Amino acid sequence: MVILGIDPGLANTGWGIVETRGMQCRARAYGCITTPATEQLNNRLGTIYDQIAAVVDTHHPEEVAIEEVFFGRNTRSAIATAHARGAALVACAKLGLPVGEYTPMQIKQAVVGTGAAEKDQVTFMVRRILALDHDPKPDHCADALAAAVCHANMARTLELSRELA
């Protein structure tokens, strides 16, 4: 299965393509969509939409994993992230891709083993799980790859539970 992981953000939206074969998980590609704060919101969202659609067109993922918005103290930041997430979701919906949505804690739990993991721990484990010879940079790429790994784990768990039923 080929999975597109997305770490949404208005300034930086990370994406990562992961391919699974049995228990193996490998990174195919990753990158970061950057939109300048000087641009109007509609143009920034259009860029995210267009570039996610281009990633799908290039890498042909079968499914998508996207991080849910964390509403902490900074509501303004959360709203901007929600806008970016919406643009990415619309691109995936228009292309007919099924989407799995995961909280930051679920992703950290799946990749590191604890929902309280720090960013550097996530990056370290993504590098190990995907057998990369370098840390995926920027962090948004590592987070997107982590979302894809989380989705792969959830898909395997679901498949195993169906087999046991």
Overall description:
The protein is an alpha/beta fold. It has one domain: 2-Layer Sandwich (Nucleotidyltransferase, domain 5), CATH 3.30.420. It is built from five helices and five strands. Strands 3-2-1-4-5 form a five-stranded mixed beta sheet. Helix 2 (75-94) links the parallel strand 4 and strand 5 (99-102). Helix 1 crosses helix 2, helix 3 (104-111) packs across helix 5 (139-164) and helix 4 crosses helix 5 (139-164). The chain is globular and about 50 Å long. The two termini are 22 Å apart.
Give structural attributes.
165 residues, alpha/beta, Nucleotidyltransferase, domain 5, five-stranded mixed β-sheet, 51% helix, globular
SSE order and pairing:
Layout: E1 2-7, E2 12-21, E3 24-34, H1 41-59, E4 63-67, H2 75-94, E5 99-102, H3 104-111, H4 119-129, H5 139-164
Parallel strand pairs: 1-4, 4-5
Antiparallel strand pairs: 1-2, 2-3
CATH architecture: 2-Layer Sandwich
CATH class call:
Alpha Beta
Provide mean pLDDT, rounded.
93
**CATH fold label:** Nucleotidyltransferase, domain 5
Oligomer: single chain
Spatial extent as radius of gyration: 15 Å
How would you name the CATH homologous superfamily? Ribonuclease H-like superfamily/Ribonuclease H
Number of helices: 5
Q: What sequence of helices (H) and strands (E) makes up the elements?
A: EEEHEHEHHH
Shape: globular
Unreliable segments of 5+ consecutive residues: none
Separation of the first and last Cα atoms: 22 Å
Instruction: Please outline the major beta sheet.
Output: 5 strands, mixed
How are the strands ordered across the major sheet?
3-2-1-4-5
Helix content: 40-55%
Strand content: 15-25%
Q: Supply the helix-strand structural class.
A: alpha/beta
How many domains is the backbone divided into? 1
Total DSSP E strands: 5
